[in-house]
Specification:
- This protein has 205 residues and is mainly beta.
- The chain has two helices and 13 strands, in the order H-E-E-E-E-E-E-E-E-E-E-E-E-H-E.
- The chain has a six-stranded mixed beta sheet. The protein has a five-stranded antiparallel beta sheet with strand order 1-6-5-10-11, with no helix packed on it.
- A hairpin with a 5-residue loop joins strand 5 and strand 6.
Length: 205
């Protein structure tokens, strides 16, 4: 059973470095993903800002080969700060089967990964890793944006609709993540699609 964290939080009030100074242009508007989604993102945790992970999920009834796809991590100014290229041979199983997730884990991730069929280590180029006021987007081999999540309005490239709620240091001991519902519903509005929960890498939210 997932535990909602937003109320408690409010009460407690292989990776490639980006080219320095390179900005990314806004991507064209896309429809809701019908293949793979950014399913859950934890930008920080009890250990520190690198106690983090990104989880992708295959939402189809067919295997999805995501070899060579890119996971681009954005800073608060919409610049790409890191680019993660998905390993060759990464095939996500059909939804609701073992291997449906890819978990990209930060260097200090403390949460156990339930389904470790597809796991890739993320070594960030900064001490922040995935910025809590940044965003994450996935691009296929053709360079087309497939899905994304933003945690601030200025982070426009990954953003879909309104930005998701940011994770803060006050939430760290709650082990938070921004996660979709158990169906991985995608309405193209980050604020609607993602809510704060106790993190569950490699498991249904």
């Amino acid at each position: 059973m997932r535990r909602f964290l937003l109320g408690a939080a409010m009460a407690a009030v292989a990776v490639t470095p980006a080219i320095a100074g390179a900005a990314t242009a806004d991507e064209p508007a896309v429809t809701a993903s019908s293949t793979v989604v950014v399913n859950e993102v934890s930008t920080r945790g009890p250990a520190n800002a690198l106690d983090e992970f990104i989880e992708l999920r295959n939402i189809t009834s067919q295997p999805q080969d995501i070899s060579g796809w890119q996971i681009r991590i954005y800073g608060p100014n919409n610049f790409v700060v890191d680019t993660i290229t998905v390993f060759e041979g990464t095939v996500l199983s059909p939804r609701d089967n073992l291997g449906q997730f890819l978990v990209v884990q930060g260097t200090n991730l403390t949460a156990p990964i339930t389904d470790n069929t597809n796991v890739q280590l993320y070594t960030p180029s900064s001490t922040v890793g995935v910025p809590s006021n940044g965003g994450v987007a996935i691009f296929n081999q053709s360079g087309v944006k497939v899905d994304g999540i933003s945690f601030a309005n200025p982070v426009t490239t990954p953003r879909e609709g309104q930005p998701a709620v940011q994770q803060t240091p006050a939430m760290d001991q709650l082990e938070p993540s921004s996660a979709r519902d158990i169906l991985s519903t995608d309405t193209d509005n980050n604020r609607v699609d993602f809510t704060l929960h106790k993190r569950t890498p490699g498991a249904l939210n």
